[in-house]
Amino acid sequence: QLSSHTMRLPGASRRALLSHSLSHSLSLVALFGSARVQRDGIAFAAEPSSEAVARAKGAFAAFDQRDLPLADRLFTQTIEEWRRLDRGVEEITSLLVARAGVRTDNREFSAAKADLDEAIALMRPTGEKSNGLGAYREYPDAFVQRGLANEGLRDWRGALSDYDKAVSLWGGAGDGVNPYTLTYRARARAEVGDYEGALSDYRGASSIFSRVDKNVEQSSFARAGEAVTLYALDRRDEAVRVARQVVTRFPGLTDLHVLLAADAWDRGDREKAIKEWSFACDAISTGCAKYRDVKEGGWLVDVRRWPAPLVQRQRTFLEESQGGVMMGARAAGS
């Protein structure tokens, strides 16, 4: 999954990536130790105890198992111990970034950002080569993580700045850029009104996912973002064409079936609209209940963040079709 890129997947793969650097360091400690002694007048960092090493490994295990309170507590204890032992910057930053991942997943975005601010500051002296590229993968990854924390804080410009920095550290363009980060940046660009930039990023991400990663699912998700962005740009026919292409190849995208339903209803194609809506509600395991929440501040507006013209068409569809005239198992609501 990781291919030649980093942070290819959210969730488990991201947590595995965060643990890699520290796990390597812990292995070296276990093998060789590094007790704080004076050797030729030079002080070396003290070796963590076996209990401290086990606690650090337990933090990553708890993160992977989604026990976020335990992971946060163990990471905090480990960071305190690593500071006391004056361990190296590489280990401290790995721990800070990992704890930030826990806190982001737990929606503690301010605390996550504070960890990432410190980690980035610690890496800044060595993280960037003279040509502007990242000297090691953890540096751009930390900017991506901070971008996600900024998104949680609804600081879209801060998120965009972080994603821009990460992309520049990967070379700015081409197959060396992490496509997940392009989708994150596309989302941030749309939030600040740069729909053309968002469109470019979704297309770039889709291309890398398809050609390099051979990942049909993620390529389809990126193209779904492209379709919604085209709708925001009032390029409605293009949006519908892309949406149809995507659901033909990857039919399980509720978002696009609902988009097609709302659009078809607005065009007067009632049969097509009900067909797409029924497929979204009955044929896809997640159902369509969230797409009924079209009020201001509701899920479609505030969480999914569809563009206003598309939200209005969905409202009209639900009102005029009496809730989509839903048929089948999910007619009552999930």
From TrEMBL:
<dbReference type="InterPro" id="IPR050498">
    <property type="entry name" value="Ycf3"/>
</dbReference>
<keyword id="KW-0802">TPR repeat</keyword>
<keyword id="KW-0677">Repeat</keyword>
<protein>
    <recommendedName>
        <fullName>Tetratricopeptide repeat protein</fullName>
    </recommendedName>
</protein>
<dbReference type="InterPro" id="IPR011990">
    <property type="entry name" value="TPR-like_helical_dom_sf"/>
</dbReference>
